[in-house]
Amino acid sequence: MRFFGTTWVRHDGGYGLRRVAVAAGSLAAAVAGCLVLRFAYQGMETARVGGFVNLLVIVTFAVCSALAFRKTWEGFSRRSVDPAREESLRSLRMIGFIGALLAYFFRSLTEAPGEKLRRGEYETAVAQYEKRRGARTGNPAARKKPKRK
């Protein structure tokens, strides 16, 4: 929701264009990240660190990317129950940044990432506000006070 402001509420103010830009930007960032990882892998080949280390690095990035994708995707549909657990997974998401960027890309093809979650919270808040507002009877200062006998 970072790039959308309040345009997601009514899908106005360039909402569609912003979604296209976010999708293209996240895909471009994922491709750039893959290129950087490729250069790092070539550096490891040049250094001749060994097949086991190369395999270990590849598996690490693949697993972290898969976990980051899943956690990012889940974060678009529901709030985290345990913020401490999410904080502990921050380093995993940083290592698997390509998976998180791909989740952002795929979600932005259908909606603003996190829009469904925020829309539900927004509609609940509006309904609660209307309920509180409807319970009021007007200005309490304008009411007539009963006469004392």
Architecture overview:
The protein is mainly α. Helix content is 72%, strand content 0%. The protein has 7 helices and no strands. The longest helix has 33 residues, at 15-47.
Largest sheet: none
N to C succession of SSEs: HHHHHHH
Separation of the first and last Cα atoms: 62 Å
Sheet/helix structural class: mainly alpha
How many beta-strand segments? 0
Overall, the morphology is elongated
Helix content: over 70%
> Average pLDDT across residues?
82
Give start-end ranges of low-pLDDT stretches. none
Strand % is: under 5%
Number of helices: 7
- Radius of gyration, CA atoms, in whole angstroms: 25 Å
What descriptors fit this protein?
149 residues; mainly alpha; 7 helices
TL;DR of this structure?
The protein is an all-alpha fold and 149 residues long.
Structural topology:
Blueprint: H1 7-10, H2 15-47, H3 51-75, H4 83-88, H5 90-95, H6 97-108, H7 115-135
